[in-house]
UniProtKB/TrEMBL annotation:
<dbReference type="GO" id="GO:0016139">
    <property type="term" value="P:glycoside catabolic process"/>
</dbReference>
<dbReference type="InterPro" id="IPR057739">
    <property type="entry name" value="Glyco_hydro_29_N"/>
</dbReference>
<dbReference type="InterPro" id="IPR017853">
    <property type="entry name" value="GH"/>
</dbReference>
<dbReference type="Pfam" id="PF01120">
    <property type="entry name" value="Alpha_L_fucos"/>
</dbReference>
<feature type="signal peptide">
    <location>
        <begin position="1"/>
        <end position="16"/>
    </location>
</feature>
<feature type="domain" description="F5/8 type C">
    <location>
        <begin position="342"/>
        <end position="487"/>
    </location>
</feature>
<dbReference type="InterPro" id="IPR008979">
    <property type="entry name" value="Galactose-bd-like_sf"/>
</dbReference>
<keyword id="KW-0378">Hydrolase</keyword>
<dbReference type="InterPro" id="IPR000933">
    <property type="entry name" value="Glyco_hydro_29"/>
</dbReference>
<keyword id="KW-0732">Signal</keyword>
<dbReference type="GO" id="GO:0005764">
    <property type="term" value="C:lysosome"/>
</dbReference>
<keyword id="KW-0326">Glycosidase</keyword>
<dbReference type="GO" id="GO:0004560">
    <property type="term" value="F:alpha-L-fucosidase activity"/>
</dbReference>
<comment type="similarity">
    <text>Belongs to the glycosyl hydrolase 29 family.</text>
</comment>
<protein>
    <recommendedName>
        <fullName>alpha-L-fucosidase</fullName>
        <ecNumber>3.2.1.51</ecNumber>
    </recommendedName>
</protein>
<dbReference type="GO" id="GO:0006004">
    <property type="term" value="P:fucose metabolic process"/>
</dbReference>
<dbReference type="Pfam" id="PF00754">
    <property type="entry name" value="F5_F8_type_C"/>
</dbReference>
């Protein structure tokens, strides 16, 4: 029986629940669920592999004999394992490059592994890589070149049907796909079924991209779609693996002539930095190869990027809020060359060693503003390692400080910040300071944060107290993480 005493006893809890402060309203563009999941990956791998690997070319003409493809020692677990050991959380395979050769036994063309010597014509690179990725708990994505220099149908409406049929095979036969990658290279000279001619297409209309993207949504609703213009992920505008600084997540693509944009037709000079107040949440992906070329060439074995170079690229991409897509091309044996493996191991060791422990995790915190004076938005939320919690201020408060009493001298060189991006990108400028000689000394400052901001100091510093100052924001700040790390050695 419910008594008056029971009701009165429960009344304070009811009042407390009623006083719970609402979270901030989203500001500007916000990510979809699939984009939020993609942001969490941060670092993924690219595998460029096709007949080009055996012809020593970057772009195949389309007249290559399928039989030339024969990676006798191919081992998907070894390939994917090398990427995982480097810290990558996903892998994208060039299922078909511009030469039109398909790495799976497609029903759409004879220009595929089914006509090669490899595995007696019964092999399927796509299946083996996708299954190896699943075993390593890595995401799997597909690259399918729109341009096909082998197909006699390229340039006609019939080719679009063929392209979508190939895409359908990939999206329905190989498990969950996290990203579909559309290259912007479109049209030119090619074999085209023996015509050996140049074919041009209208980049804006030929592929009817909106309809293709609808198909992807229906077949793989959790997959993001990458191209120069998205619709989920944008090209950063260069193949150096470097994001702009700042790199705003929002972006409104414009065609080269100022008109409508499409894959292969966009003002890429704006892609690197994005648009601070753009209307679309369209984050940047930074693609770069570990070698000078995208495919394996023996002559480039001495020109593989060193681990130190890869670390720099990580900070210039992931550290600016973008995602790094690092290409590591298999060699003719179907393995990753030893030079590449050495660099990947060095990178992986650095990343795991550096980011293993937030040295500020046990700090005592204090903030000049807390939303609704509600502890669920208090500064301690910056240190709990949970992306769903965050520190926030009241609406209209666009500058605020958080202090961190570390309780001991802490030596560090790397700072990491994250915004609670489901509420949009809100912060425009911030500084980090340390208490030194009875005053605050600035040690770092920057602009965009978004999914993450990494600051690598020129040298390690020691601090017992730190202060984060949001000096400018377009809306009340909402940050989910503040962390400092000691930089690991590059073995």
């Amino acid at each position: 029986m419910i008594t008056r005493r029971t009701l009165l006893a429960g009344f304070p809890a009811v009042l407390a629940a009623a006083r719970t402060t609402a979270p901030p309203s989203p500001y500007g563009a916000i990510p979809s669920a699939r984009q939020q999941a993609w942001h969490e990956l941060e670092f993924t791998g690219f595998l460029h592999f096709t007949v080009n690997t055996f012809t020593d070319k970057e772009w195949g003409y389309g007249d290559e004999e399928p039989d030339i493809f024969n990676p006798a020692r191919f081992d998907a677990d070894v390939l994917v394992g090398a990427l995982a050991d480097a810290g990558m959380r996903g892998v994208i395979l060039t299922c078909k490059h511009h030469d039109g050769f398909c790495l799976w036994p497609t029903r759409t063309t004879d220009h595929s592994v089914a006509q090669s010597r490899w595995r007696g014509g019964r092999g399927d690179v796509v299946r083996e890589i996708s299954q190896a990725a699943a075993r390593r708990k890595m995401k799997f994505g597909v690259y399918l070149s729109p341009w096909d220099r082998n197909s006699a149908q390229y340039g006609t409406p019939e080719y679009i049907k063929l392209y979508r049929a190939q895409l359908s095979e990939l999206l329905t036969g190989y498990g969950p796909i996290f990203e579909v990658w559309h290259d912007g290279a479109n049209g030119g000279d090619g074999y085209y079924g023996g015509a050996k001619e140049k074919r041009t297409i209208d980049k804006n209309t030929y592929y009817d991209w909106p309809r293709t993207w609808e198909m992807i949504r229906a077949m793989q609703p959790e997959a993001v779609v990458f191209s120069d213009v998205g619709p989920d992920v944008r090209w950063v505008g260069n193949e150096r693996g470097v994001a702009g600084d700042p790199c705003w997540v929002a972006f409104d693509p414009v065609g080269e002539d100022g008109g409508a944009a499409s894959p292969g037709n966009v003002r890429t000079k704006e892609s690197g930095m994005g648009h601070r107040h753009g209307s679309k949440w369209l984050p940047a992906e930074c693609d770069v190869s570990i070698r000078p070329g995208w495919f394996w060439h023996e002559a480039e074995n001495a020109r593989v990027k060193k681990a130190s170079q890869l670390v720099n690229l990580y900070y210039e991409s992931v550290g600016r809020g973008a995602t790094l897509l690092l290409n590591v091309p298999p060699n003719r044996d179907g393995l990753i060359s030893s030079e590449d493996v050495a660099s990947l191991k060095g990178l992986g060791g650095y990343l795991s060693g550096t980011f293993a422990q937030n040295l500020a995790a046990r700090a005592k915190t204090d903030a000049t503003h807390v939303r609704g004076n509600d502890k669920q938005y208090g500064p301690a939320q910056l240190l709990n390692g949970k992306p769903e919690t965050f520190w926030a201020t009241d609406d209209g408060v666009t500058s605020a400080d958080v202090t961190f009493d570390l309780g001991r001298p802490v030596k560090f060189q790397v700072i990491r910040l994250r915004e609670a991006i489901r509420f949009g990108q809100r912060v425009d400028a911030f500084t980090v300071e340390r208490w030194q000689s009875d005053s605050w000394e600035q040690v770092a400052s920057s602009t965009s944060i978004g999914p993450r901001r990494l600051i690598r100091l020129d040298a390690p510093i020691i601090a017992t107290r730190l202060r984060l100052r949001v000096t400018q924001a377009s809306a009340s700040p909402a940050l989910s993480e503040f962390a400092v790390f000691a930089e690991a050695n590059l073995g």
